[in-house]
């Protein structure tokens, strides 16, 4: 259909006869819509840095703490396709994506409250100072709900940006860049929050008879997360102006999207394993290397702050302050890791153009292996020192550990770029990595 004046707009889809041409969404509105990623990632950063140590303080053995994290890949494998399927067909007057974003964000708030107050709930239900099974059960329920809620929220957030940019590929790339930017900001702020030990003084009411200073500090950090995600969710959903699915002006466009989405998700759910027989040998090698890579990443991502508290600072949960000091220093190292990860992500396209994607990926895996080897060396060096359990470790050892954490941001950026390209299929590899991590820790 010709535009008056004889010129057709570039970068915009051709209008269907009888369908009004919707105005382009301003970039500043896309920026506001993408801001919800900051709140979601803020909570993820707190979860990654503080919850593995905290669950051990509640009484779950070190060898069993990783089994709780199995919910992440499981919910990614099952929840995201289901949410995508339902949101594509949602006919709410508020739009297709926003109801799921609000529901997911509300579930995150509930889960965070359950996690933060798990020790208090356990105390009310009859836990003692030495035995806290009810607090552990409450924590596990909140933790799994949090993982599910995060997966419920993230998919519709990205889909909403795709809906608003429609088929304008340049603006889609800009919207994804905004989303990634806010994820990086949320990571930095979340890890910085986890590294600070004085939040309980601001939220003085968090320190109770069932919740000591370290527990109160974690509870306070999650209260900040609630405030943060509430603000960013409000900014995002008020900026997005979705049309209901029943709107006749977009029925043709939405039907096409639904058909494509339905085919992709049905193929994922029912034909994934059948497609393996069609893969070439080179693809199998790539998948095998990716699996090995994530088997290496998962122990780091789950036990990085725990490693800093145990191996570098020589502490144990609920025994002195060395462990918790190390956990906070580990969170600071993860903040540095996120900064390096963000810088690497910005430079990724240039690096791949210059050296090739395969070379960059291979080099990043070698760098990752060397960093993990350095962590083993640092652990061995610290074991031969006599400060353990009493004084803080030498500054040189701590700085070396922080440098290793920071450098690991480079290969992690490369691995995550492959993760985003492969989508939810990579969750199978995550399951393998998480299971292997549990097996290795359980046998130690």
UniProtKB/TrEMBL annotation:
Ranges that cross the membrane: 30-50, 62-79, 100-123, 135-153, 174-200, 220-240, 283-303, 323-347, 359-382, 397-420
Topology in membrane: Multi-pass membrane protein
Keyword set, alphabetical order: Membrane, Sugar transport, Symport, Transmembrane, Transmembrane helix, Transport
CDD domains given in the database record: MFS_SLC45_SUC
Keyword Transmembrane among record annotations: yes
Main localisation: membrane
Coiled-coil region(s): none
Biological or metabolic pathway of the protein: Glycan biosynthesis; sucrose metabolism
GO molecular function terms noted in the UniProt entry: sucrose:proton symporter activity
Subcellular location: Membrane
A GO term from the CC aspect: vacuole
Superkingdom, natural source: Eukaryota
Family according to the record: Belongs to the glycoside-pentoside-hexuronide (GPH) cation symporter transporter (TC 2.A.2.4) family.
Protein name per Swiss-Prot or TrEMBL: Sucrose transporter
Species name: Vitis rotundifolia
